[in-house]
């Protein structure tokens, strides 16, 4: 174990030395490819070790050096990689609600796609980073049923998956969703919020199947008919993620890159936030469902160092 630790440490110091050498070059000759190669092929934990080693050897902070030497889209991705997944997600949320206006798209994507355990960690890290309470910030920046849904998710009351399948409860919840929406005039939104924020994901997957025996529409179609605006978008992200989270992200990436005026911010956000969670599975779902690889789409719709860093994170086609 000691030799393994020392071997890893020496590897990290080697990485740090190479990173220091690249960062100390004149700007015109900065070797971005080496920075990309080193940082995209390491875990966050390894990148953090490299940063510590760099600071000891170069006597300066590596993140500050990266900020000084990089720019544009490459800088955004690389600086994102120097945060843990929870730190990055917390920063996305803070950025979406800080200042004038709210970036609802980012807020919905993060809060409605993360697991209960991820949200618990995000809340903790948010408090550490910004000295603020995530619940209070979300409540202060949203309103109505949209706010109630997001707050219910942030309260992390979702049940853990159980090995026991409760068919009676599945039927009860499916019927309750139908009776709170399609069956009546108007929508009993609190019932929808309660069920979708408190039940386990495997349970909800079965509920949505059972729902189709009550309603002429599936759950996503019902959401489209019953609610509008940010509340509709939030419920749709939840249901899509309950059904197949990796396919949801694959579709978002496809839409972002192929839409008129490619949404670079969305592409960066998804790839950086998922690179240590499920990016390989997202690549697999992308190829299976969209007819070409994510890597090929990146090659066609991005360019330069931004393209290289995205491909570095996705890895080779499988």
Automatic annotation (TrEMBL):
SMART domains xrefs: ANX (SM00335)
Keyword Repeat: yes
Assigned GO CC terms: basement membrane; cytoplasm; nucleus; plasma membrane; vesicle membrane
Cellular localization per UniProt: Secreted, Extracellular space, Extracellular matrix, Basement membrane
GO molecular function: calcium ion binding; calcium-dependent phospholipid binding; cytoskeletal protein binding; phosphatidylserine binding; phospholipase inhibitor activity
Broad class of where this protein is predominantly found: secreted
Keywords: Annexin, Basement membrane, Calcium, Calcium/phospholipid-binding, Extracellular matrix, Phosphoprotein, Repeat, Secreted
InterPro entries according to UniProt: Annexin, Annexin_repeat, Annexin_repeat_CS, Annexin_sf, ANX2
Protein's UniProt keywords contain Protein biosynthesis: no
Record text about domains: A pair of annexin repeats may form one binding site for calcium and phospholipid.
Family membership: Belongs to the annexin family.
The protein's name in its UniProt record: Annexin
Organism in which the protein naturally occurs: Cyclopterus lumpus
Gene: LOC117732005
């Amino acid at each position: 174990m000691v030799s393994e630790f020392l071997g890893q440490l020496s590897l990290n110091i080697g990485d740090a030395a190479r990173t220091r050498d690249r960062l100390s070059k004149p700007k015109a000759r900065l070797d971005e490819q080496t920075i990309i190669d080193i940082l995209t092929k390491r875990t966050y934990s390894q990148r953090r070790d490299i940063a510590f080693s760099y600071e000891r050897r170069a006597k300066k902070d590596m993140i500050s050096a990266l900020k000084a030497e990089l720019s544009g889209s490459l800088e955004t991705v690389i600086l994102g990689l120097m945060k843990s997944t929870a730190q990055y997600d917390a920063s996305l949320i803070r950025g979406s609600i800080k200042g004038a206006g709210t970036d609802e798209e980012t807020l919905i994507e993060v809060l409605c796609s993360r697991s209960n355990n991820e949200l618990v960690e995000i809340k903790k890290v948010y408090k550490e980073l910004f000295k603020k309470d995530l619940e209070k910030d979300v409540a202060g920046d949203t309103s109505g049923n949209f706010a109630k849904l997001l707050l219910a998710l942030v309260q992390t009351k979702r049940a853990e998956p159980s090995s026991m399948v409760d068919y009676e409860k599945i039927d009860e919840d499916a019927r309750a969703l139908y009776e709170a929406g399609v069956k009546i005039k108007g929508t009993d939104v609190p019932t929808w919020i309660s069920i979708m924020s408190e039940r386990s994901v495997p349970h909800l997957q079965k509920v949505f199947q059972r729902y189709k025996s009550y309603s002429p529409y599936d759950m996503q179609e019902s959401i489209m008919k019953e609610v509008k605006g940010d509340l509709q978008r939030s419920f749709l992200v939840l249901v899509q993620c309950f059904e197949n989270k990796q396919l949801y992200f694959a579709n978002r990436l496809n839409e972002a890159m192929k839409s008129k005026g490619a949404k670079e911010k969305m592409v960066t956000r998804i790839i950086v936030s998922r690179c240590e969670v499920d990016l390989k599975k997202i690549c697999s779902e992308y190829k299976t469902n969209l007819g070409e690889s994510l890597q090929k789409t990146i090659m066609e719709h991005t360019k330069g160092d931004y393209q290289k860093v995205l491909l570095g994170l996705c890895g080779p086609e499988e």
